[in-house]
Amino acid sequence: MIRGAIRVEDLVKVYKTKDTEVVALRGLSVEIGKGQIVSFMGPSGSGKTTLLNIVGGLDEPTAGRVYVDGVDITRMRGREIERYRLEKVGFIFQLFNLIPTLTAYENVELPLILGGKTSDEREARVGEILEQLGIAERASHFPDELSGGEKQRVAVGCALANDPSMILADEPTGELDTISAEKVMDIFLELTRQYEKTVLVATHDPRVARRTELIYLMEDGRIKSEYTPTEVPPMGRVEGIEVAVSDTEQSYVEWVKQRIQQLGEEARSLQERLKRDEIDADTFTQKYLEIREATNAMRSELVRLGIHVES
Ligand SMILES: Nc1ncnc2c1ncn2[C@@H]1O[C@H](COP(=O)(O)OP(=O)(O)O)[C@@H](O)[C@H]1O
Ligand SMILES: [Mg+2]
Questions:
Q1: Which pairs count as long-range contacts for 150-153, CB under 8 Å and 24+ apart, including other chains?
Q2: Domain parsing of the chain, residue ranges
Q3: pLDDT, tens digit (0-9, with 9 covering 90-100), for 17-37
Q4: Is the CB of residue 117 below 6 angstroms from any atom belonging to ligand 1?
């Protein structure tokens, strides 16, 4: 298997307390290729954090397997799993995982110290990372003295420090407003793409998920379906699941309108392919009905939002 590839098989996680059982994952399977940037989007409690923690070797599943580069990490214990976490995984958490008593420089240096790098290697690496993240002049500042966006860049720096093959980001923009969140996502994804990192993002926010290549919609400890970015509305509901608070309904309306237009184009190109004999009648009918159904759903969404629709 290629470096950075992940295969999750029938993952189950049951949290047992004295008199209750919570099933956080119910047989979740997914395969993520090297260098792929995917997100797990779903409401609070759908199992996103549990999944990332197990893939990152921070938690053990009740059942199921996780193969990273062909090796089953759920069988690793002690020093072995510690090494896996340190060498293969970079974490970015919602509550910026920065140590308040260390400067930006020292925060990025810490994983390198843990990784056993020499001081010369550390100096070169930290300098390079802070430079790339555009925060070199903030090197000697403490987290308290940094803006939200700068703090998040330092957190990205910590995750990239040991050059892991995989980055796990749990609600990476959780504390930021929309504009900083999108900026941070752009920087983060540009870097991870440049270094060919495999990236798993957990988020409840479709605006964040839409920045990734593939979106897995999570519900109740399972993957319900998968989407490409343009298929996911920036807010509102996906398959009846509320994915984010709608702060402005306007952009959602715009998205629905765009989606209707896009579906219209898909229908036209389908007709042309039929004419050119590129697809058979059965395929055409099946696809055409799917498009029509999706279009109708989008139209009723507009009606629900009180927008006049021409038929
Ligand atoms: N340590 C724990 N003990 C008991 N229940 C937990 C624990 N961690 C998570 N859960 C439960 O598991 C479910 C999934 O949680 P989580 O993975 O955090 O979801 P998400 O990140 O999507 O919000 C929730 O019902 C949550 O309450
Ligand atoms: Mg979570």
A1: 150/104, 151/96, 151/98, 152/92, 152/96, 152/176, 152/180, 152/184, 152/188, 153/184, 153/187
A2: 6-229, 249-304
A3: 888 999 999 999 999 999 999
A4: no
- What type of residue sits at position 90? G
**Which residue type occupies 239?**
E
**Which tokens sit at 55?**
């893939």
Encode pLDDT of 171-180 as tens digits: 887 656 666 6
Mean pLDDT of 56-71: 95
Q: Which CATH superfamily is domain 6-229 in?
A: P-loop containing nucleotide triphosphate hydrolases (3.40.50.300)
15 lines ligand 1 (CB under 6 A): yes
Ligand 1 pocket residue status of 43, Cβ below 6 Å: no
Alpha helix (H) residue ranges in the chain? 48-55, 78-88, 104-114, 119-132, 148-160, 178-194, 206-209, 249-275, 281-304
